[in-house]
Write a structure and sequence with these properties.
- By secondary structure, the chain is an alpha/beta fold.
- The protein contains 10 helices and 7 strands.
- The chain has a 7-stranded parallel beta sheet, with helices on both faces.
- α3 runs parallel beside α4.
- The longest helix has 29 residues.
- The protein is globular, with a radius of gyration of 18 Å.
- The termini are far apart.
- The N terminus is likely disordered.
């Protein structure tokens, strides 16, 4: 269950006493970035038959087309690389005539390895995708949302936002930014009709690690499926929850991190993620 947060802090709106008020997203136009596979694909599939229209965004047009062909909901695909300087602006131009009710900022990438061994250009592209793209998309859509007085955003963050991540320093920092930014917006938007939910999954069985040059077999094995994470995120969005952590293990880890001294947290994180620092968890073709 998602813990209740006082409304004054951006939590659930008041209800009739039968639990948190729900905000159905049925029949709405929903834009999902990073929709070609993984969590974004699972969200699209679980909203099939519920959404009024789906707008699916990713770099790979063929993967988007394959997904769209499987869906019964009216679907538009928008191939777009949000890691480029013009990517978010190009997407906003492409959807100018759409009335978007829900934005799912799911697109993201990681890079594994010691920071000193990484080329800077891929790191900058990761910052653009993980930080700049959600910020610019939200900012670009806000005027229409404020005029309507109703909208919703689901930002997909990570439990990496809560802990130091040697071997993924820059990635974890991007998720820390997104997490803080999203929770701050939840407070700013309270009572406006625009709501924010930030979803923090842990390790998930997708191509995410492989694309970041990471051999996930060398990492802890507490993986969730994309379908499990998607269900948690959609349910939290409908409840108006500002934050949800997917998975009991991840919620327990979050609590432990809050209670433990930071020095101990750093030592434990370094021990767990040592394969990333030393290169043992780097894939051959990365």
């Amino acid at each position: 269950p998602v813990p209740l947060v006082p409304p004054a802090l951006g939590g659930y709106p008041p209800s009739s006493g039968r639990g948190p008020m729900r905000y159905p997203i049925d029949g709405q136009t929903i834009l999902i970035t990073g929709a070609s596979d993984g969590i974004g694909c699972a969200i699209a599939e679980q909203l099939d038959g519920r959404a009024g229209k789906l707008i699916l965004v990713a770099r790979r047009e063929d993967a988007l087309s394959t997904l769209a062909d499987r869906l019964s909901t009216p679907t538009r695909i928008v191939p777009c690389d949000l890691s480029t300087a013009d990517g978010p602006s190009a997407l906003l131009r492409a959807v100018t005539d759409e009335s978007i009710d829900v934005l799912v900022n799911n697109a993201g990438v990681t890079l594994g390895g010691a920071f000193a061994d990484q080329d800077l250009d891929p790191v900058i592209a990761m910052l653009r995708l993980n930080i700049e793209a959600p910020l610019r998309l939200i900012h670009g859509l806000l005027p229409s949302w404020r005029a309507r007085g109703e909208a919703a955003v689901l930002d997909v963050s990570s439990v990496a936002a809560f802990i130091p991540c040697p071997g993924q320093c820059a990635y974890a920092a991007t998720k820390s930014f997104l997490h803080s930014f999203s929770e701050g917006l939840a407070g700013e938007w309270h009572g406006t009709g625009i709501r924010m939910t930030v979803l923090a999954p842990g390790s998930t069985r997708t191509a995410f690690f492989r694309r970041g040059g990471i051999d996930e077999t060398k990492l802890p094995k507490n993986f969730q499926t994309p379908e499990e994470v998607a269900r948690v995120g959609i349910r939290a969005l409908e409840r108006g929850a500002p934050l949800v952590i997917s998975g009991r293990t991840n919620r327990a880890m979050d609590l432990a991190v809050r209670l433990c001294p930071r020095a101990l947290t750093r030592r434990v994180a370094r021990r767990i993620l040592r394969p990333l620092i030393t290169g043992e968890a780097r894939t051959v073709d990365a």
